[in-house]
Amino acid sequence: MDSLFVNKQPRLTFDRVINCNYVQLVKCCLCHGLVVDPVGCANCDRITCSVCIHNFHSTQSEPKCPYGCTTYIKSSCPKPNSIVLDTLKITCQYKANGCDAVLSYNDYTSHEIDCHYQLRNCPGCEQDIIKKDFEQHCDQCPYVSIVCDQCSSTFQRKDTDSHIVAVCLRVQLHQQNSQIEELKVKESEQQTKMDLMEEKLQKNEVFWLEFYNTTTRIRNMLDG
Ligand SMILES: [Zn+2]
Ligand SMILES: [Zn+2]
Ligand SMILES: [Zn+2]
Ligand SMILES: [Zn+2]
Ligand SMILES: [Zn+2]
């Protein structure tokens, strides 16, 4: 047995197994954990994790059996080992976060993918938050960035008050100023229109005045 090779961290530790009576049948000699995705040696019928044996062989020119057989021929997990694996009850890897689930050897992986007790990193405070509390946390976390619905600028939730006082009001003032500018432009346009109309009226007035003068003159001539 190649004693130099030991996988430091088993993927599945025995403290997660509630009812393990046949440890030797389900233990990987390379990582010393419960086998994950087990494969056997066709000679000795003993099993290892498929990742562990792959790593073990990657350093060897000729693949050896980690249990000491001179040649290694990979086989599927032998029946007795599978039967013991099927009886195991395994706790969820997120037990420390509050998950009480107890799972069979074949189900624990799919449970853990969806487990509500796994951690997620908050983009605001960068703390790990349990998945089931994540949404609520993000709705309240003072360090999460939010967008002001008034002025569209971004700031951390904790700065909301100071934003409204300092930045947003300034932005709103700026917006109001530009609205005032717009109004002024409109106003001067209207003024120009009014000037034109007045000019027209004045021209009309001159016309009518001349007309009146002419008719008066004609009438005077006729009367005279
Ligand atoms: Zn292993
Ligand atoms: Zn062997
Ligand atoms: Zn769980
Ligand atoms: Zn947070
Ligand atoms: Zn704002």
Automatic annotation (TrEMBL):
<dbReference type="InterPro" id="IPR013083">
    <property type="entry name" value="Znf_RING/FYVE/PHD"/>
</dbReference>
<feature type="coiled-coil region">
    <location>
        <begin position="173"/>
        <end position="200"/>
    </location>
</feature>
<keyword id="KW-0175">Coiled coil</keyword>
<protein>
    <recommendedName>
        <fullName>TRAF-type domain-containing protein</fullName>
    </recommendedName>
</protein>
